[in-house]
Design goal:
326 residues, alpha+beta, Heat Shock Protein 90, 7 helices, 6 strands, 12% strand, disordered C terminus, HisK_dim/P_dom, EC 2.7.13.3, transmembrane helix
C-alpha cells in the first residue's frame, strides 16, 4: 500500500541522512586534523620561532619540508632577517663613525677656541709690551742721568749700573716679544741659524713653562748660514721648545722619572751632515760634496724618549747658500 511504501521511503531517507551525517563528521574530523597538520601547526611553529628569535641565531625559521609553501616562506623570512642584521650592523658602524666624527669636531672646536684665545692673549701681550717700553725708556734715561751725576759714591754707582742692566734686560725681553709677535712678510734670506737659535732660547727660557727645566745649547756646526724664512723658522723652533716643555710637564703629571726632584733638561744641538753630489739641486753643477745643517731638540730624561720621539728626527735641513752664492 501507499502508506507502507511511504514508511519504507522515510526509513530509507533517515538511514541515508544518518550515513551522510556520519560521513560529514568523519570527513570533517579528518580534514580538521589534516588542516591542522598542514597549516595551523606550521604557523604556530613560525610564531614560536619568531618569539624566540635572537641576533645570534639568524637562521631559526627552518621547516621539515623545505619544498612546500611554508618552506619557501621560511627561507624568505631567513633572508629578510639576514638583510635586517646586515642593515643593523651597517647602522651601528655609521653611528660609531658619527660619534667619532662628533668627538673630533668637538676637539677641533675646543682647539680653535683655545687658539683664538691664545691669539687674543698674544695681541694683548704685544700691546702691553709696547706700552711698557715707553716707561722703561724713561727709567733708563733717569738711571743714565743719575749715573752720570757727580757726588755719587762707588756703591751707589754700582747699584745704578746693576739697575740699568736689569732694565736693559727687561727692555730686551720686551723687544724680543714684539719682534716675535710682528707679522712676517715671508721673504727668505741668508742668516745665521745659531744667532736665531740663541735668541729663541733666550726668549723661551724665561717663560713659566721652563721653570725648573735646563736648556743646553750646543751649536757645534762650523757653518750656520742658511737660506730660509727667518720668522717662520723662529716660530718652528719656539713651538718645538714649548712642546718639549709640555712633554716634560706631562711626564711629571704621569709620575714618569723624578722630574720634580731632578728637573727636566732640553738639549738644542746643531750638526753638519754631508750630502753626496747627486743630492744637489737639479740644474746645478756638481762641485763635490756639500753640507747640510741639521738641528735637534732632545729631552734629557730617559722615559721621555717615546714622548719626544718626533724631536729625535732632524726637523729642518737647509742647504748653506752662503757658499753657493760665492
Amino acid at each position: 500500500s501507499l502508506d507502507s511504501l511511504s514508511q519504507t521511503l522515510w526509513e530509507t531517507e533517515k538511514m541515508v541522512l544518518v550515513y551522510l551525517l556520519i560521513n560529514v563528521l568523519v570527513l570533517g574530523t579528518i580534514g580538521f586534523f589534516r588542516m591542522a597538520g598542514l597549516v595551523i601547526r606550521p604557523v604556530e611553529r613560525l610564531v614560536a620561532l619568531a618569539n624566540q628569535y635572537s641576533n645570534h641565531d639568524p637562521f631559526r625559521f627552518v621547516t621539515e619540508d623545505s619544498g612546500s609553501e611554508f618552506g619557501q616562506l621560511s627561507n624568505s623570512l631567513n633572508s629578510m632577517l639576514v638583510r635586517i642584521d646586515e642593515d643593523r650592523q651597517t647602522l651601528q658602524h655609521t653611528v660609531t663613525a658619527l660619534e667619532v666624527a662628533n668627538e673630533t669636531l668637538k676637539r677641533q672646536q675646543r682647539e680653535m677656541v683655545h687658539a683664538e684665545k691664545l691669539a687674543s692673549v698674544g695681541r694683548m701681550a704685544a700691546g702691553l709690551a709696547h706700552e711698557i717700553g715707553n716707561p722703561l725708556s724713561v727709567v733708563q734715561g733717569y738711571l743714565g742721568i743719575l749715573l752720570g751725576s757727580e757726588g755719587q759714591s762707588e756703591q751707589h754707582k754700582d747699584f745704578l749700573r746693576r739697575s740699568g742692566q736689569e732694565v736693559q734686560r727687561i727692555d730686551k725681553l720686551i723687544r724680543q716679544l714684539l719682534d716675535f709677535s710682528r707679522t712676517a712678510k715671508g721673504s727668505p734670506k741668508v742668516f745665521s741659524l745659531h744667532e736665531l737659535l740663541h735668541s729663541v732660547v733666550e726668549m723661551v727660557k724665561v717663560q713659566t713653562v721652563f721653570r725648573g727645566i735646563i736648556i743646553d745649547a750646543d751649536f757645534a756646526a762650523e757653518e750656520d748660514g742658511v737660506y730660509a724664512d727667518c720668522e717662520q723658522l723662529r716660530q718652528v723652533f719656539v713651538n718645538c721648545l714649548l712642546n718639549s716643555a709640555d712633554a716634560i710637564y706631562m711626564a711629571e703629571q704621569d709620575g714618569l722619572d723624578a722630574v720634580h726632584k731632578e728637573g727636566g733638561r732640553v738639549s738644542v744641538t746643531t750638526a753638519l751632515q754631508c750630502l753626496l753630489p747627486n743630492d744637489q739641486d737639479q740644474g746645478q753643477e756638481k762641485k763635490g760634496i756639500r753640507s747640510s745643517l741639521s738641528v735637534f731638540v732632545i729631552t734629557g730624561l730617559e722615559s721621555l724618549r717615546n714622548i719626544c720621539l718626533l724631536f729625535l728626527i732632524p726637523f729642518i735641513r737647509a742647504r748653506s747658500r752662503a757658499r753657493a752664492q760665492d
